[in-house]
Design a protein that fits this description.
Layout: E1 4-8, E2 11-14, E3 25-29, E4 31-38, E5 41-47, E6 55-60, E7 70-71, E8 79-86, E9 92-98, E10 107-113, E11 124-125, E12 133-140, E13 146-152, E14 161-167, E15 178-179, E16 191-194, E17 200-206, E18 212-219, E19 222-223, E20 227-231, E21 234-243, E22 246-254, E23 262-266, E24 271-273, E25 281-289, E26 292-299, E27 308-313, E28 316-319, E29 326-335, E30 338-347, E31 350-359
């Protein structure tokens, strides 16, 4: 079946038959997936649900056959919130939050594979702050240097800040954690990416007076002033992606309390409402394909009790998952000539990881 429905003038909803080809692939039990595609294939990290509370890795050359899960954290604590990035040579860098240092002050841990996921370094505690370190994000520069940014309550439990640490030797050692958000009030987790000139770009949401989207770029010891891009009654779940020198930012925004939360995209000039659906939009994931931003998110338009994964490319908006379960936490990436999205699907009390892909479109 193929259908289309006009949501707002110029915005067309297209059924998931646009993603014709391989059916949705079930990657097994897990949650909180993070996916990246690069010269060494597809790389996935996620939280286990087997009672060990560990972070696992799986890899695939082309998306249909996947390696067996590898336990990366194998720690006595609770490991959560994994995310990963790829270096230019295909090396895989993974970070997560872990309570091995203490239940009341989790730290950020790092592991790296230089051989496409075959072997891994031992987990390294890179934050070591006195209070809660959560929601890490990692990015690799063109020269191989690494940046990790996370939320931290060392400055006050009620108002977390953004902290960052940096490595110039592929993660063997890290700089002392540095305050990046300049204490503008409560800071959310960050989105981050390097541009081709080696500058790090990151965005976050802050609730100083009114909720705002904040943006900053630069390098350690040389950051730009903080730029505030948008304000409203709510701002959350920021993400960021880059292609060459071009940077794209996204977040969940609500201009006023009467409107539903929607997904916003900023590409240098202004913020645009991308989702514009009658449902509630959340959990955005941003990638760049053919020099064009692509967004995946969770949306309740098809039903409040079974939200689906949606995707936007330009003016095209698609409901991808169309599932009877509860779709959550999509992770979108572009590579190997395709767009890929993985998400967690809760159905009948079990949470599985689901994968879909399709050929990338030219501009």
């Amino acid at each position: 079946m193929f259908f289309r429905r006009l949501l707002t003038p110029g915005l067309t909803l297209i059924s998931c038959t646009a993603w014709a080809g391989p059916a949705t692939l079930d990657l097994g039990i897990g949650k909180q997936p993070s996916l990246a595609a690069g010269p060494t294939g597809l790389h996935l990290v996620y939280e286990s649900l087997d009672g060990n509370n560990d972070i696992y890795y799986r890899g695939s050359l082309e998306g249909s056959v996947w390696s067996q899960p590898v336990n990366l954290s194998h720690s006595p604590g609770i490991s959560s919130e994994p995310t990963l990035c790829l270096e230019a040579d295909g090396s895989v860098d993974v970070v997560w939050s872990d309570t091995s240092s203490g239940n009341d002050h989790p730290d950020i841990y790092f592991a790296r594979s230089a051989d496409a996921g075959k072997t891994w370094t031992e987990p390294l505690d890179i934050s070591q702050t006195p209070r809660l370190s959560r929601s890490p994000r990692v990015a690799a520069a063109p020269d191989g240097s690494l940046a990790v940014i996370w939320t931290d309550t060392s400055g006050g439990r009620s108002a977390p800040d953004l902290f960052g640490s940096f490595s110039q030797n592929h993660g063997k050692s890290w700089s002392k954690p540095e305050l990046l958000s300049a204490q503008l009030g409560t800071s959310s987790q960050a989105g981050l990416a390097f541009s081709s000139d080696g500058r790090l770009h990151f965005n976050w949401c802050t609730a100083a007076t009114r909720p705002r989207t904040a943006y900053r770029c630069g390098q350690p010891q040389g950051w730009s002033p903080i730029r505030q891009l948008a304000a409203g009654s709510s701002c959350s779940q920021p993400c960021l992606a880059s292609s060459g020198s071009k940077v794209y930012l996204s977040w969940v925004g609500q201009p006023d309390r009467q409107s539903s939360p929607n997904i916003y995209l900023w590409s240098g000039a202004r913020a645009e409402n991308v989702s514009r659906t009658p449902g509630t939009s959340s959990d955005p994931s941003l990638a760049v394909s053919a020099q064009r931003p692509v967004l995946a998110w969770i949306d309740t338009t098809a039903g409040a009790f079974h939200p689906d994964v949606w995707l936007a490319e330009g003016r095209r908006v698609q409901d991808l998952s169309h599932s009877p379960g509860i779709s959550r936490k999509p992770s979108l990436t572009a590579g190997l000539g395709k767009l890929w999205v993985v998400w967690e699907e809760l159905d009948r009390g079990t949470c599985h990881l689901k994968l879909m892909s399709r050929e990338a479109r030219s501009r």
